[in-house]
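Notebook, p. 212. Picked up where the previous page left off. The plan for this session was modest: take the two constructs that came back from the sequencing core last week, fold each one, and keep the raw output in the notebook itself so nobody has to go hunting through shared drives later. Recording the first one now, exactly as returned: residue sequence, then the structure token string.
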Amino acid sequence: MLLFLVRHSLPFMFVFAILGFLLPSVSLAFFPFLPVVLFTLMTLTLLGMKQNELIQRLRRFSIWRYAILHSAVFMLVVGAIGWALSFEADLLLAVVAVAATGSLFATPAIVRALGFDSLQAMAMTIATTLVLPVSIFVVLVLYQTEKVELDWGSYFIRLIVFIFGPMLFSFLVHWSLPEESLSRFLVKISPFTILLVFAFPFGLVGSFRVLFDHDPMMALNYFMIATGLCAVFFALSYFFYRKQGQDIALTAAITSGNRNVLLTYSIAGVLLGPAFLPLAGALQIPTYLLPVFTRWLNRCLLKLNNSKD
């Protein structure tokens, strides 16, 4: 059964988002455990990577240029679209905050399942997370009329726990254990790390179901907006990186489409307004449909390129 789930992990991410919507009480009950799953996934993913190579990637200007696209550029784009469509203040704040959000920590595992460069995705994920406090501060200053009081202590604790902690742990493990033994262990467990990703769509979609039960039309509106956000992030990133090759373009696109709304909410909380959590829940369905769409798109593009040759 586990091997079947691993083999078909990409469509099952979407299935678990649907299950979370159908079982809202279970989804909401599971929500508090997501940070533990997040830490475990980040640690296992980093264990499979050489830390010196990851640091070398983070030193590249191209990674930080991507982080600017991921946050600042998309904040401007989404803000302009929201203003043109006359979004209410709370909804406009929520959509721009989503644009400021870093990439999901599960992205490297998803990218690896697609057969692309997970190290590149990890570097992109870390870079977008590191610029998040600046981005979200700008969002709150521009779109929030209340006094801005970010929970900096909470953010830096999470930064240490979810990024620097696993990086240090991985470095120590690679330094202290024989590489051959560690490689055999990682080969056995690495296929199953993707199963941890299922927890995120399942645990986050419950807040959207609450909105759906209260106001179905508003929930449908939020779902359409969430789908539009994913499409804009994905499409613009793909076309921005298209000249660098199909693998890089699709890696950038899906990394941009995945947004770590859980971390953003833990930093700014209620300052993000009442629209943020329902929108974050609505995002789970299109977000976890993206891997399936990306795999299909990759196959179509490969066939198109082969036919040209």
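Okay, moving on. Second construct, recorded in the same format:
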Amino acid sequence: MAESSDNQRHVTVALKTVYCHNAQGVMDVDLFYVAGGAATGPLSGSKSMTVLTGLVEINSRQAKLLAGDDCVIFDGNVHVDDFVEFGLQFRSSNADVDEGDFDDKYPASVSALTADVGAGAGSANASVKGAVAGAILAATPLALARVQARASIYEDDVLGTVQKRVNVVDYPDGRSGPFKWKFADKYPITLADTGELGWSEWDYEIEYTIDVGPAR
């Protein structure tokens, strides 16, 4: 018997805006993207979704809107006593790799993420907070690396990671947010062209919203 819609709410979690206060790239421009996934708890059937945005070219002191289906973290019906848990990596694609290479491998990357994220989330102990998100984060880089098959010098940089559980009961109907994640870091590097010591540093903010409404 299908579950009554009275026991479910439709939940949409979506990325909205990326603010780059300081770009990670030495040329003051990043090719920013987000990878990961989301899954519900067992009361909702342990449904999972994949997140892989397209590349966003962004400079220091610049903001870009994040829109489209690829910026949706989760969208579906969830039991009122259940949760959505997600794990995301915020990344900067290596500037030495052609953007066309990312686009060409995008469908295969989504397929690999879908399989690995679904398997990881499905095998995690959902009763332990963070276990589903942790499994998603563990699966994400492995899936991307399998498709990209790049040499280590071309590996993309991980600018930050997020794990979050959204308990449906905690959110009223309508839109909540925008909420904000902030991540920044700084570490020494050797500049490839001169061999001199330099710094890789970045400062980002990401806004997202959570919408809750009647089951569809």
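Notes on construct two before I forget. The chain has a mean pLDDT of 88.
Flagging for discussion at group meeting.
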